[in-house]
Amino acid sequence: MRSPTILTAVLAAMALVMFVNRPTSAEDRPNIVLIMVDDMGWSNIGCYGGNVETPNLDELAANGVRFNQFYNGARCCPTRATLMTGLHPHQVGVGHMVVKAKPYGERWEGKRGAPYVQTTKDREGIPYPYQGWLDTSIPTLPEILKAAGYGTYMTGKWHLANEKQETWPTQRGFDRFFGHLAGGSDFWKPNGLFRDNDPVEAEGERFYLTDTVSEEAIELLAEHDQQNDEQPFFLYLAYNAPHFPIQCMPEEFNKYRGRFKKGWDKLREEKLVRQKAMGLVPENTKLSPRPQPIPDWESLKSKKQDEMDAIMATYCGMIDRVDQYIGKLVEHLRSTGEMQNTVIFFLSDNGAEAESGPFGQFEFKKLGKYGGGGTKYGRGWATLSNSPCRDYKHFTHQGGVQTPLIVHWPAGIPGNRNGQILNQNGYLPDLVETCLDLGGGQRPKMLKGKAVPTADGVSLVAAMKGSDAPLHSTPVMIEHEGKCVARLGSWKLVKHYNQPWELYDIDHDFSELNDLVADYPEKAAELEKAYNEWAERCGVVDWDHAKDWSVYSNKKPKSNTK
């Protein structure tokens, strides 16, 4: 007799299969590759005007499309929760972050390199939207695509689980997984790797995490081709780079060393000129002011400028390495004849991070060398990474939520669309609806006896193929730690934690410098009403008036950074 656990799993799988809308011909369905980097700013890469040489991403953009107003979830876990479900993070139990991590298994206690997982300890009584892991009664994108006939694979950072294996990638729809479950990892000595459900140790004298998760992804696709040649695949490649610790290989460090001695002020000005020439931002766009306490670059002593150059060289080297391995992945797809009908999406989980003051934290002598754990690159360079936009990771002004989004699909994007920059505002739920649209999958209405919430996303396929019509007729909503967004068309209502609402016309004020809330009070009230209704529907806590914010977060929300 089957155990209740096995029976539940079987019924859940049957529910997914029953609601799959299979296309008439599997050959028409593209392979789907979803690549996400971690803590990279909106404008770090070359095709967004950035300072990092990214020829492979630039080529994908030149032969595909770029979105210049696409939003993520402002931080690691909320973004990943939405990316795997198409629902708002509060609807799936990740309204803030996942629960804290601990070593997996007694034999790893106190050992460096231990595989870390999240634990549910002390989470009893927490409201569902903030429970701290991806709810197993919510169907995931890989589960739906798997039921639709796709091979499903993941390498890299998961950051959606607790200690129970039912929340791990291979129990949430992926056929194979290699990577880390927790929210970050050392790149030289990773903080715990798993292959499927089993802890594994880093191998090789020259181990580097970016290289390994890329190579594993290519190997999984090669195995897929050998075993399931007629079956399309879905690959989720979730890089830890360039999340701290800021660690890069010596060759990339040496490549970028000395390129940033002009400083963040001058480099921001030069970047804006490039962005205007590319058509990424309107001609009237101005730089957001350099926020306090970031000093004028020219006020720094030459030694400090040299140190700052070195940490930015390290950060950019990490992104350069990602681009190199994306090139290797593309080379593999071309060698197998799969590139033509493979859709590649590239994005970042949030804006550049600024959690360590204006100068970051690091040991200067270790930059570009083996070691250097605990390194962060600081708010000064994060301002350049997100330029010309305001704010950073955690926040919902443009610098926190705006991500580059590159879409490449030779078989589906018309040639006359190649290289175009799309101005429509979209967000993560749209990306999931796009994958389901392409793959012929459809969410079940019920799973494990619970109703599945209705998704708010729309497919991007029409925009990819040539439509310039707005994507949304109702506001795009995002919330994290009391930082909120309601965006409809060009109007963006936004606020910091414990601060009043602000209103911007993004088409004419890309950097959010001219608050119009006093000039258009009716528009602000309309969007605020819509936001409050959405927040009530999704179980979003009112952080400004919460009696005990520690119920939802393990530390106090960050306040205004202007």
Account of the 3D structure:
The chain is of the alpha/beta class and 562 residues long. Helix content is 29%, strand content 15%. The chain has helices at 4-18, 55-62, 76-85, 141-147, 209-227, 250-256, 263-278, 302-335, 379-386, 398-401, 428-439, 461-465, 521-538; strands spanning 31-37, 65-71, 101-103, 116-118, 151-157, 176-180, 193-195, 198-200, 233-238, 342-348, 402-408, 420-422, 426-427, 446-447, 450-451, 476-480, 483-488, 491-495, 502-505. β17 (483-488) and β18 form a beta hairpin. The longest helix is centred in the middle third of the chain and has 34 residues, at 302-335. The model is unreliable at 1-11, 17-24 and 103-114 (pLDDT under 50). It is an enzyme of class 3 (hydrolase).
CATH fold description: Alkaline Phosphatase, subunit A
- Helix/strand/pairing class, anyone? alpha/beta
Q: What is the CATH C level class, in words?
A: Alpha Beta
Question: What ranges have pLDDT less than 50 throughout 5 or more consecutive residues?
Answer: 1-11, 17-24, 103-114
CATH level 4 superfamily: Alkaline Phosphatase, subunit A
Radius of gyration: 22 Å
CATH architecture: 3-Layer(aba) Sandwich
Strand content: 15-25%
Question: How many helical elements?
Answer: 13
Proportion of helical residues: 25-40%
